[in-house]
Every structure is written in structure tokens, then in C-alpha cells.
Amino acid sequence: MFYNDLFTKAINLFDQGDFASADCLLRQILQTSPDNPEVLNLLGLTAQAQGLHKEALPYFSAAIRQEPNKAAFYYNLAFSLKAIGEYADALNNFFHVMSLSPQIKETYNEIACIYEAINNLPQARDYWQKALSLDPAYSTAEINLANSYRLDNPNQAEQLLQDLIKRFPDETLGFYDLAWLKYQQNQPQTALNFAQKAETLSPSSDAVKYLLGLIYLQLNQDDKALAILSSAEELNPNSPQTKLCLADIFSRLSRFDEAEARYKRVIELDAKNFAAHNNYAEMLYRQHRLPEALEEYRQAIILHPDAAETSNNLGIVLKDLGQYEQASDLFFNALRCNPELVEASINLAEVLMLFSQQNENEALKIAQYWLKSFPSNEFARNLCAALQGEPIENNQDFIEKLFDNFALNYELVMQNLDYAAPLAIRRIAGDIEGRIADIGCGSGLVGVAVKTPRNQLIGVDLSAKMLELAAAKHVYTELIKSDALAFLHQRSDFDWIIAADVLGYISSPEDLVSLCRGKNIIFTIEKSDTSNSYQIQKNGRFKHNPLYIEQLLKKYGFQDIVIKDIVLRTENSSPVQGCIFKAAPSQPK
User: Are 466 and 441 in contact (CB under 8 A)?
Assistant: First the structure.
């Protein structure tokens, strides 16, 4: 009698959603009745209801050992196996359920869902049809069948689901599936309408609230996303997907402790969760916790060795730790996985430049192997030339890709390098009046420095992404995507030309100087004291002799030439010496 009362009370607590109290009572019963299959099964269901599917498995298995012919036990075991992605074992157990009780329609629906998950749509649809043959009014199977067409015919899926929500207006699943479909089609407002309807029908569904959170993120309504995802987490504290999404949000907000606790919990729940390891590693890297980031990236690579960006990010950590050869291997792997990942090319070039300072011959061999493996890669070609002291001309594609990739972090990087050119140009220029062509304007740092109410600025750059940043400064009258020489060939409707940090990408500046005739000019160079004209550095940039530049200016009719030595920036903790030139045309315009 005592056992029956406790078990009945445990069932009531379970039905009320008080899983912790139910679990406590069931464990108490288990002490006196350790082999009771119903108690073992309910313990499994209690863990399952909390999303603890791995913890549920041994209880279901133990119940089956005690009562091997009960279909419900196999069904519950299969359901948890399906939840953790153990599809083969889940199918075997669902098939066993069918052999014991062939009339359970839910078994066919679950089998169909597994076949859909492993991309076997014909089998999936066949099993949904079998479920419907058992119960033609089985709305869940009919909605799942309709939703499966999103994978090969989204328009058909939408039409079928629209029809089904009219037939089953009280079924959450139809609205939920339509919300997912519209979210994946990047139609967040329509998705929101369907998801809100689903939430009205099932206000305690953590899955619906999770989807609502994703939609709010797509709508850039981060506060609402955070609130709804937090409520989803309260409903199901063990949902890996909700915790991971919250961790990512907290990481972006630099609320690192809250993010870290969730990343760790996701990994506890699902050690094979690639995104958890990868995103946690990114956060650790941002906190400069390099050894920990290294370990998490390694775990991510083990799970997904073909993830190009993860290989690239792991290479960055190794580069920062001074492990240049290992880093180059990771950047190579990233390029093998995705040859179009420009960031990996830039990072490989940088790490080989650094490695060349330790072992010049080996760095060159690696660079030559890179060029042989990827003969069309501009970064490989430029690096090989630089390491061999050879100039590369007509490298517009290289520069465009370099700065498009550099754009997002450009200003932060330049700030960290103590980039001095914009303010130096402002000091030497004073208050410039008239129209100014800012050649190689980048993100607009020089434009901000020289802009006054008495001038107008034309920004010119090869990088479209840099021009987007420049546009946000609101100091330019025009922004033009063009090579410097092409622009100067086509346009002359300006009084001044400014070229900050442009000549570093030009071996012979004579063409540029000749096209600037008749204009006032201000530009910077990296200073070379060892060459009569220019020298190429191992980073692929050029240094120029100031006397050579001065002679060019005089050759093309410039006068009032002013030359000032400046430190352009800091690289590898060393100052980069340069010069700033200012010159006027000899003839009035």
C-alpha cells in the first residue's frame, strides 16, 4: 500500500510538471523496489521531460530488462535516442515497438521524422502515410508530411500548411512550421505572426519561444529576443539550443560570465555540439584566454574537420602563441576546405612573413608550395614575390580583397598601431579650401581629419566595403570605387590630391605623380634609406627613398615642396618610419 501511494503521488507530481519532486519520490521507491519496471520507466520519463535524454536512457533500458515485451518502454527509449541523434538505435527500437504493437500511430510518425532527419524523404513520407492510414484525422502526421516539402518544394509546403491551419486552427504545429519556413526564407515579420499564433495556442512551449527568439534576432530586436529566450530557458533549463543561443547573445554583449556558464552547460548536455565548442572558443579568444580557446577550437575541429572558418580561427590562436608552422598548417586546411576564404589567405601570408624572420628559407618553401597548390591566389603570388624581393605590379585584385576583408576591423587595428597619417596630414595641410580628391580614402579617417565647411571631398578606393565605412562618416560629397590611376586619368575636377598610405602599394610612383600635375598634393611614404628609389618588404609593401620622390615631384613641375619625417604607425612593437610630402603646382590651374 505504501508503495502504491508513493507511486501514485509521483505520477501526480509528474503530471503537474514538478519533475524534481517526482524524481525524489521515485528514487525513494527504488531503494525498496530496485527492479520495478514502472518506477524505472517513470524515472526515465522524468529525465526525458527535463531534456536529460542521456540520463533517461539507462532507466528505460533497465525497465526493458525487467519487462522485455512492453512496447511503451521501447517507445520511450527510442524517443530519447532520437532526441540525441542516435538515429540507427532509435529506428531499431521503434521498429521493435511496431512488432509488439503495430497500431500505435505515433511510432510511424517518429520513424518518419528520423528518415527526414537523415534526408531519406521517400521513406519519411511513406511512414507518414502509414500513420495516416491508421488514423486519417492524425493532424500531427499530416502537418509533418506537408512540412517535409520545404526541403524540395517550399512553395508546395507553404500551400499545404496554409490549408492545414485552416482545417486544424487549434493545432500549434502548423503555425510553428509556417513560422520556421518564413524564418528560413528571411521573412521575419511574417514568421513572427505565425510564431505568435503558435505561442497563443501553446504558451508553455519552450520550442515555440526559442523560435520567437530567433525571429526577434532576425528583426534586430535583441532585447525582445533575450527576454523570450530567457523565458524558454526557464521552461526547459536543459535545452541545448536555447542555452547556446543565449550564450551567443551574452557573448556579443560582453557578459562573459553568463555566456560561459551556458556554453559549458551545453557541452555537458551534448559534448558533440560543434557550435558550442566553436563559439565558446571565439569568446575565450576575445578575452585573450588563448590556451583555453586553443583547446575548444581543437575540440571543434575534431567534430568538424571541414569547417574552414574554425581551422582559420585555430590558426589565429596558434599564430598569436608564436607557433607559426602549426598555424600555417591550419590556414592551409582552411583554404583546402574553402579556397575562397580570403581571411585564411591573408592570415597565411601574415604568418609566413612572421615565420620568415625565424627561418627565411622554410617560409619561402611553404609560400612556393602554397602558390603551386593555389596558382590563382593573389596573396600566394604576392607573398612569394615579396619573400624573393621581386615587385608585383597590377595587383588591384589583391588590394581590393585585402581591404574588403580588412574593413570590419580596420579602424580598431589602425588605432592599436597608433596610425598617425590622418592627423599628420591635417597638421601639414591646415584648413584646405576647394575640392579634394582623397585617393585610397579607406574608411574615411583622412576625410574626417581634413573636412571643413570650406571644402568638398571626393573619396576614391578599390574596396567597396571600405567605401561603406567612409560613407558612414558623412564627410564626402562623392565616393567612387576605382583604382587611383584610373580615377586620375578620368577626373580632374578638384584642387587637391591627398594619398595617405597609398604609395606603399606602388613600386614606381612616377605614373601617379605625373597624373597629379597641376594640383596641390599631399601624400605619405614609408621611408627607405637603403635604396636609390624603392625596395619591396617581406610584407609585400614598398618603401621609397625620399630624395627619389622629391626628384619626381620636381620633374613634373611641383614647387614649394615640404618634406617632414613622421612615424606612420607601429608594427611588431617597432616604429615604421615615413615621410609626408606637400607640394604645389608650378603653374596656376
Answer: yes
